[in-house]
Fold:
Amino acid sequence: MIPSYAIVIVLAAILLPGCAINHPQTAEEFRQAVPGAFSGKVETFETPRAVKDIAKTFQKKAPECLDIAIETTSQTTDSYSHYTTTYKPTVVVSASKVELHLQRHIDNVVNISQEPPGGYFLLVADAYTVDNKTTRVDLYRPALGFDVLVKAIKGWSTGDNLGCPDLTKI
Amino acid sequence: MNTRDYNRARRLLIAGYAFIIFLASGCAQVRPYPNTLAKNLHVHTTTDSGSMFSSVHASVEVYEVDAACKTHYRGVVALDAPTVDIGLAPGRQSFLVFGFASSSWLGNSNGAISQATLLTPRSVDIYDIDVSYIDELYNVVIHETDRNGRKREIDTQRLSACQAKK
Structure:
């Protein structure tokens, strides 16, 4: 009798090459991919805050809150798993725009597509100057499951809440 | 192995794990901070897990930092009151790790996250630290008040900012 795991491996070997997944390798590719992705969402809002102030907040809070590694242990009576999730934030500032990119890498996971250096892109926030006192923020974000991260980045953008997201809740 | 042997082996394994955890907890580096120095830090804490089915507890671990930037654990202070006063050695570098431990009764899940900072209290200054964990967002904000009553916010600093003295 053929073991069930062997069937799974054979099926995966047949099916995976046929449905090769190409994950975005850059922030720009991520921006282009999110609007058409089932698991992605683009959210836009405006805030009465100058883009240079948002840049200062992103530059302070991103390394403080998002440059982090989270260890997760899951244990049931029949299974045990332990893995580390490493987040990598990048802030890019120009005269009229600030970008926050967040990448995520998970150890001990078999990737079915090429992972960019630093991890898969999880979120990109672009803040643009509308006028002297108004900034528009485009959030390229996951559609579900990352509410606390989105809440934090919205808070940093508006200046209403400068808290760090508890990434153990993701 | 029959079912009875399997269950017995499993019980032994669980008992073994429990024994190891018991031993490890005895050796773990968790001890209260002596907190005998003049109180120059006032820690104001607000926690709210955002759900009646979960809770969050805040604490701060105190480390002394030597001239080579090595940390030496001095103990932990539970931030279980709205304001907790702590005494740190003035003029000496300390490393403070503010921890937030959350637990949920429904999903039987636990999590812990922390925010750390180097701090060198000046001899006559007073430090007010606002520590919060509200709806899964946490924050640590430090204000320094000098002898003239001037108050300013100071940024948290990573341990890597420590400069070893030769």
User: Anything to note?
Assistant: Residues 51-66 of chain A form the longest helix (16 residues). The longest strand of chain A covers residues 80-93.
